[in-house]
Write a sequence for this structure.
């Protein structure tokens, strides 16, 4: 099982980023996939989930209306579009799914700074 995140970087407040998670080693279309984030000195938090049927759930109130998540089962990929980024979005973002236990990618760093 492998989850590989990409798309992070350094951006200015108000800009956008699109994170991608490429999955392999399991039946991707059968599982919900989630994005988590962990800011310095804070616990990891669940940001968004897309179910195997494509239902989107956003858990963090402050990103509602700015972030969305999508999946492409033909490419084993989940993306998180992040718009109007602000400094509080600075964190390492992780792709994850649960099958008997939770699996994690290595994460991609997002830094929002002027």
């Amino acid at each position: 099982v492998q989850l590989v995140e990409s798309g992070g970087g350094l951006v200015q407040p108000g800009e956008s980023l699109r994170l991608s998670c490429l999955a392999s080693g399991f039946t991707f279309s059968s599982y919900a996939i989630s994005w988590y984030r962990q800011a310095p000195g804070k616990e990891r938090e669940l940001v968004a989930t897309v179910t195997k049927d494509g239902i989107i759930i956003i858990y963090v109130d402050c990103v509602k209306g700015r972030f969305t998540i999508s999946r492409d089962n033909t490419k084993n990929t989940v993306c998180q579009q992040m718009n109007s980024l602000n400094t509080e979005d600075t964190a390492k973002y992780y792709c994850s799914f649960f099958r008997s236990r939770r699996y994690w990618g290595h994460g991609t760093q997002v830094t929002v700074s002027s």
